[in-house]
Amino acid sequence: xxxxTMKDSSTNARLGAAWREARRLYPLYANLAKEFxxxxxxxxxxxxxxxAPSEEEVTQAQxxxxxxxxxxxxxxxxxxxxxxxxxxxxxxxxLLIHHLGKKHSNVDxxxxxxxFVQYFAHCAPSGLQDENIDLACVAKVLEPVLGTVERTVxxxxxxxxxxxSEANAAKDLNHLLASHVLDKGRQLKESLGEEYFSPxxxxxxxxxxxxxxxxxxxxxxxxxNGIVEGLRDLEKSGVSTLDCRRAQFSAEEPIARLRMICQSxxxxxxxxxxxxxxxxxxxxxxxxxxxxxxxxxxxxxxxAAGPLKQAAAAGASAGSEASEFEVxxxxxxxxx
Length: 336
Prior knowledge:
Layout: H1 3-35, H2 44-48, H3 55-71, H4 74-81, H5 89-100, H6 106-123, H7 135-146, H8 159-168, H9 173-178, H10 181-192, H11 199-236, E1 241-242, E2 253-254, H12 255-271, H13 276-298, H14 300-303, H15 309-317
Antiparallel strand pairs: 1-2
Helix pairs in contact: 1-3, 1-5, 4-6, 5-6, 6-11, 7-11, 8-10, 8-11, 11-12, 11-13, 13-15
């Protein structure tokens, strides 16, 4: 085979691989754009599903994907992939390979960070306990994407283990946020620059992100269940409304409505556990309910002779001495 023939064969193989990747990604990107009303020009070659596209058509398809990458925000990708039936193992792997092959920006880093955590969550054995999630476990699950990876954590990444310990020590969401663990993890990722995309760093932060997700959901459900149980106890005591201005609700918020809001939050945070404002409201609402419960218990003997609104109002100021916390803003990001 002469050199020219070999060159043509190599080009055809490259174009064929690029076209197969684009066709696999097309349904996912098209549905994501539709769900979030992202206006995008059509890609005739992908629409028609040509079996033997020209080089120009392959280039157009690749550019179509790249253009959409620029417009898809991280929180949209996160929400879509955690709720769409298209986000199976193959779809996640294709997305990872696609993003790893690009020139990386901070937004790409955040998307890749989320995609690896989501891929691990999807493919890891069920019933996996936190103490069994070490680098060897993560490396085994990510091998179809990363290949064989060195599993020794370099000195620069050692702080990650301390961050996991701090997060595990949090007794509720307020304490987790006050520890700034999520912010510290983000700062460490940013400080690595291109080193973040090294296989060992990806292993380390995939483990970190997955454990943070577990800790977050555990604490979130703990707080939500605490709120719902507290609302039930307040209703039994005759309280029907709460002063929830601290949590950005009304001064006389019906308990029935608060219960419905808590149910909607379970869905919201399942898709986007870095949402800033709703997360702050959740933490503040827990403080309001706990404050109202404490006041109700303290004034129980006197309630029979007077209205119960003072117990509800007490929730608005209760916990005002609690430590301040910082919630990462809702942004094209992803969370950790």
